[in-house]
Design goal:
Elements (H helix, E strand, L loop, with lengths): L2 H15 L3 H10 L13 H8 L1 H24 L8 H19 L12 H11 L1 H18 L2 H19 L5 H17 L1 H9 L6 E4 L2 E4 L1
Antiparallel strand pairs: 1-2
Helix pairs in contact: 1-4, 1-5, 2-4, 3-4, 4-5, 4-6, 5-6, 5-9, 6-7, 7-8, 8-9
């Protein structure tokens, strides 16, 4: 492995993760720091809640792209042979660095988001079919409940379940990472869970006979 390229991948991964799309877009187009409103989280869900879907969707796509690009850096820089456990492991490390960058962004005073979309981007780069399956779970739960947080939690839990039941990977580290990521979603959404139990969690979608109403 080229050490210089490995260090470069790690540095670029952190810089990618540190791009505070929610903060920059909120300030640029609305003169609002989303960390001071709603849940106080610099993520796509809070942007949608505070500034609406037209602003939130670009934030979501950028945060996903950050994780995808970070996890693909080891491939682009030829740090290991394709379809090997070593390459997958390096991709995971690059992805983790990007996730940390999203949570602790150097460009935004180290106050970022929860990293859900960035985690999704990492998984999409490494296991696209498995990730798409979990997206299906997310959308199904969102359609039923209208609540993004519980949809994210259940989709996160479904990821390692699907991995062990229906998919395969040469990397033990990826299996461990999948379990940790699913568990971390529960931990990082504990306040959301408390609001759900109290019936206070905001629904971004409410369905009626006429169809979905977006809030």
């Amino acid at each position: 492995m080229n050490i210089f390229n490995a260090v470069l991948a790690g540095l670029l991964a952190y810089m990618l993760g540190s791009i505070p799309s929610a903060i920059w877009i909120g300030k640029r187009f609305h003169n609002i720091d989303v960390r001071e409103h709603g849940s106080g989280n610099a993520g796509a869900t809070n942007v949608i809640r505070v500034l609406g879907w037209k602003t939130g969707i670009p934030v979501l796509l950028i945060d996903i792209a950050k994780g995808w690009l970070a996890a693909m850096l080891p491939v682009f820089l030829h740090l290991a042979d394709k379809n090997t456990a070593l390459l997958t492991n390096i991709q995971i490390f690059a992805g983790i660095i990007a996730i940390l960058g999203h949570i602790f962004p150097v460009f935004a005073g180290f106050r970022g988001g929860k990293g859900v979309a960035t985690v999704f981007g990492v998984f999409l780069a490494i296991q696209p079919l498995l990730t798409i399956s979990s997206i299906g779970v997310f959308l199904a739960v969102l359609f039923i409940t209208g609540i993004v947080s519980i949809s994210s939690i259940i989709a996160g839990i479904s990821f390692p379940v699907f991995l062990f039941l229906f998919f395969n990977t040469p990397s033990l580290l990826f299996k461990i990472f999948a379990i940790i990521a699913g568990t971390a979603l529960i931990v990082t959404h504990r306040k959301n869970i408390e609001r759900i139990l109290r019936g206070e969690e905001t629904k971004l979608l409410k369905f009626s006979r006429k169809g979905p109403n977006v809030h």
